[in-house]
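Researcher: I'd like a structural prediction for the single chain below. Treat it as a standalone chain; there are no partners to consider.
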Amino acid sequence: MSFINASNKKEAQRKDSKRIYILGLGNVGCFVAHSLKSMLMEPSITLLFHRKGLLDNWKKSGEIIELRIDGVPNIRGGFNVEPTVPLSENESDAASSSATDFSPIHHLVIAVKAQNTVAALKPIQHRLTAESTVLFLQNGMGVIEEVNTRLFPSQTGRPNYMIGINSHGLNSIEPFVITHAGNGSISFGTISPGKRDTYSDYLQQSMLQAEPLNTILCSPEKILQLQWEKLVANLVVNPQTTVLDCPNGRLAEPEMANTIRTLTTEISAVIQALPEMSARSKEQFLPDRLQALVTAIATKTAKNVSSMLQDVRAGKETEIAYITGYLLNRAEELGLRCEENEKLMREVLVRQQQMQDRQDP
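Model: Treating it as a single chain, here is the predicted structure.
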């Protein structure tokens, strides 16, 4: 009998070593979970609920994730779910909390908002080890540095990290129902190439084999370049549309050209001074190219409302600290000033506070 129990335990451990956990179930998290479930040999997936009420929303959705493409719904189910926070009374009988679970998490995709990352990770921190692989799929930069400082200060027990940059157009209809609004890709890669183990490849291969994701595996140098390209767009489009309270297309109008030029010139100066950026990559971040990049994105996404403006309108905290805040921190390290970007950040924070005050009388 003990042999059977030991055998069952070993089999369970083997299956868990190939389980992918997803933390953050907004547009990107749901899209990744849905896409992984579309594989012929689909992996086991656990959705981590880090906010109260998510489990209620999950029940109301029918415990499925729906992806709509050109209005046609595509439904995936069969997910495991696990709350990472204490449950509300009406959720108490539905699932057990991660706080009392010590089984290791070998593969984790993080898609929460940048400012929520540390708080969302803390309840499962004890389940992440040097054998774990964590893929960050978020806007902004500086999150990993904060995670290391506050959760994993020792390099010895620190997980393997990968970074992903998403360019798919995704919109939320309701909890666990999203629409695919524009074809894109997810470029990703490890940022610690010398720190690999037998588990790292499984998450990497799963992401590559999930066809709807259209993933591209990149070198650390390329990932850094793509991170900054995405950050440049977010540095201009997100805060500028938030202050103007307008769709992205407004920034493609001729009268916005000088404003965009001023912002991108400051951004370019910081990038050109970065010690970690190669000379070859820096050629992609000259002011003319950055202005053209921002204008092209504003034109392509003309009818879209930026995520930052959506957050401000909803009275939520924005990711500005990990977008413009990150730029300003790097500029200060390098002895540079970004006065116009700093001014824009202050204006965003004022609007954010105004909307929060209006919704909390």
